Amino acid sequence: xxxxxxxDAATAELLGFDWxxxxxxxxxxYGSRLFSELVPFRPGNERAAESRARQIAEIAERLxxxxxxxxxSLLEQLPDVVGAVARASLGEPLDDPGFFELRLFxxxxxxxxxxxxxxxxxxxxxxxATRTVLEALAPGRREAxxxxxxxxxxxxxxxxxxxxxQAQAEVDAARGREVERVARELGxxxxxxxxxxxxxxxxxxxxxxxxxxxxxxxxxxxxxLEYGESSQAALQRREAAFGxxxxxxxxxxxxxxxxxxxxxxxxxxxxxxxxxxxVSLGAARFSQVHHCTAPVVIREPALTFERARxxxxxxxxxxxxxxxxxxxxDLRGAAVLTGPNMGGKSLALQTCGFxxxxxxxxxxxxxxxxxxxxxxxxxxxxxxxxERSGGLLSSFAREVTALKDILARMAxxxxxxxxxxxxxxxxxxxxxxxxxxxxxxxxxKACALLATHLQGVAAAAGVAHFAxxxxxxxxxxxxxRDLKGALDALADSMDYTIAKVGGDEAPQADxxxxxxxxxxxxxxxxxxxxxLSQ
Amino acid sequence: xxxxxALLAMYEAAWRSGFRVGLASIGPKTGLRLxxxxxxxxxxxxxxxxxxxxxxxxxxxxxxxxxxLYARTAHDGLYxxxxxxxxxxxxxxxxxxxxxxxxxxxxxxxxxxATLASGDGAIVVSCGAAAAKTxxxxxxxxxTLTARLRVPLFDSRAxxxxxxxxxxxxxxxxxxxAGEERQIVVGDSTQIVMSGRSLSEALARLRVRxxxxxxxxxxxxxxxAPERSFDPGPFLDAVAxxxxxxxxxxxxxxEAA
Lengths: 534, 257
Fold this sequence. Notes:
The complex is a heterodimer of chains A (534) and B (257). Chain A has 534 residues and is of the alpha/beta class. Chain A contains 20 helices and 15 strands.
């Protein structure tokens, strides 16, 4: 999946793009090739995006997960024959490993077709091409998966191989006689290798006939045994037999290559169909594992969903044995989100972004139901972006620069998440900037969610105001310095529900209560409450 | 050093005894004459078109010569071997060949064979005139090498200093200076990265032990090299005496007395 201009790397990281890519990734080389070319649906293609998501959701619903896994395990074993088919179609003879892979490919196609999943989908990938190639390569079958250019491929091959084996036996016999004679004359059990050492002390008389001295020293001779007349004649006969056998083997390869060449288009079509099946099953598996639903993809710049989840965090919390609370939201155009610290504001932004990403790639979304628009750009501004250390710019200046870039791009359909923008300047000026930004986004008809602790932004900018309900009162205080206990108590006491509120309603930070929960001493907390009341 | 000559001598002996032999090599080894029904590991680009071989599996293990595949010869002929460049790849290749053979022979550098530790595998050490300037130096080198490879298993009941990584000459000198009497335990003997006098001293003065032992069963010698040669008979006897292992000179057709 290519994110192209839809989102930049930092936004992609925050919204879990790589996580999503891994979660839906196919498993075969054909699927991977297709998958790497997938691009997001742009505005105007809502029907196609929705149709694809529905198709995947239907597969996920119709097929039991074990059937999906079974087909994926077959797809995982598929060899990549695209290169071999391309070479064959250009007339280049294939080698035996190429035939091995081609036959395995055709066999796997049959097995995929025979799987209950393919049956349920009414999909047949095998074709006359795959069946013909499989039949042509069948005589090469060995053991479970091996391939050998067997005698059955060509009537003359067996005779040629027999002649070669006979010629080799004659070489071995002739050479064996020479070696045996030399070993006997040297008084040794055997002479191994092309070169051997003869100790002068062991030598009685001259060296045996045919033994050539390669190097000599005071105590030994390094020798080689020349090939005698009978060996040389046998070698010549073997070379002739080898040439004849090699030519016949090549003839078989050329024939088999011509079969592959004649069916290259059909084999390519099968490879593409496997790739499409693989990509669909990867997405269907994602949908099954994460209980996704097909979204309604709408023409408006809006995100409306019920019980939505940001899957990368849900996966982390599941591993840690912690509870994840899904959220509901009806975001149309620009809106402000307020709420307590640790109330899930940033997570709400990420959830919106994740759903928008899924819809952009025609995937089912992790929500009970959703209506999602398509966008030209998804951007993130404010906290969460990886802070760059050093440099001349302050964190505020970096935020402003990033905002300038986003506005300058003038994406016709912008989805932007703003998380505590301008928090590092004075609250007075910070609010003014956030109000101005919200107004600008409203005017541009962007879909935007701006999380902030600043009061009165929604009303001043004339946009909707959502708030996380916040702490319901902490039931039990954990022991001092017990962070895990504090987090458990917080999770128990926090109402993560996001509700639309009146434009002027003061944002609830619950900051002092949280400070107490996290272990600040009671004197400190009381002083803070006193200061707040003044 | 004559590694390949020794390997082929063992291959011939095993084949004549009726064993199904598997062959692998660490790094490419070209032009080996193999008999039919031999399983071997090679790289796809090294596979000659004739005689055709039975392709058993194409692996995803890479080697310096290309991706590896497993094949079985159907006819006698000249074949090229190749091997994986990683220890995990070597383990996988050996396992695959072993499943189809009675005996697997691997041609390779000694420090890459730690993968054989604690398995059924055994090591034959080859030495020769190519690796040392004098005969005594060659004998000393092979003696310390085999001593290193034959470091015994540690005694779990005795006190020990467990090392996670390698035992170097610097560490050994510190242990000796501190009068360390406990066992110094490494993973396997290839993690003792010393040679020559340092290694002899360390093995003599420290109780160096390992968690996975290697089984060194023999040495082979090659007394001739392009640049020098030793007197084969005395060289063989000296190696046998220094290593206390069965020692063979496959070039001279001799076994040490």
